Amino acid sequence: MTSKAPVIRLRDVTKSYGIGAAKTQVLRGVSFDVDKGELIALVGQSGSGKSTLLNIIGGLDQPDAGEVEVLGVDTLKADDARRARLRNESLGFVFQAFNLLDHLDVLHNVTLPAAFSKNGKNAEERAREALRKVGLSDFAHRRPGELSGGQKQRVAIARALFGSPQILLCDEPTGNLDSETGKEVIDFFRELNAKDGVTLLIVTHERRISSVAKRVIAMRDGMLVETTDDALGMAGPA
């Protein structure tokens, strides 16, 4: 019986910025796999390389060296068009900044990915279904300025779900939210993972996200330091 291939596979990934004396090594030989249906918290103090790693997995940045495979696609060897197709059709992104367009209503913020994909069929219907999933069906024609922080983040999540992604990449998704609203978003991620089988990789300082994660990966100074239940302690202070 053959084992299933991981949906994310990293081997000896390195990344630096700058040149000469100003060169900063951000990632130092990071290797790990993510299996389908996992909910993983990626933790570590600021500057440990978490967000850079997430951007590399999502094809928003390229490493200096190493191997990166996402859903069987070698993103280092793939051309720009193939990486863009992977992002548009199979990945969803949620960031700390909601990145909503104030001049568009909620519905059209959610349909934005259709502008970058060939799969624009039934865009409004799909957007309304995504809004239903995040509990904002009645907010389709409101503008972002009329929403609370938690509602804005749920719109951002709906936009990420618009293309029915297999993998959701989240960078500090509760960072701009109060405690109670952050809990609601965490509960939604857990439900999305359990019911829909979406694989989630979440960069976070939020211990409650780590507590519901199936695995915690801790980073320090650009290196993976632990992937056990004790990973939060190994990561160092936030």
Characterize the main sheet: 6 strands, mixed
Radius of gyration: 18 Å
Spatially, the strands of the biggest sheet line up as 6-7-8-3-9-10
- Described by the principal axes of the CA atoms, the overall outline is globular
Helix content: 25-40%
Structural class: alpha/beta
Intertermini distance = 42 Å
Q: Which parts are unreliable, with pLDDT below 50 for 5 consecutive residues or more?
A: 230-238
The number of E-state strands comes to 10
Order of helices and strands: EEEHEEHEHHHEHEHEEH
Mean pLDDT: 88
Give the count of helical stretches: 8
Specify the oligomeric state. Answer: single chain
Give a verbal description of the structure.
The chain is an alpha/beta fold and 238 residues long. 32% of the residues lie in helices and 25% in strands. It contains 8 helices and 10 strands. It has helices at 50-57, 80-90, 106-110, 123-133, 149-161, 179-196, 207-212, 231-234; strands at residues 8-17, 24-34, 39-43, 65-70, 73-74, 91-95, 167-171, 199-203, 215-220, 223-226. The protein has a 6-stranded mixed beta sheet with strand order 6-7-8-3-9-10. Strands 2-1-4-5 form a 4-stranded antiparallel beta sheet, with helices on one face. α5 (149-161) packs parallel to α6. The protein is globular and about 50 Å long. The N and C termini lie far apart (42 Å).
Summarize the model shown.
The chain is of the alpha/beta class. Helix content is 32%, strand content 25%. The protein has eight helices and ten strands.
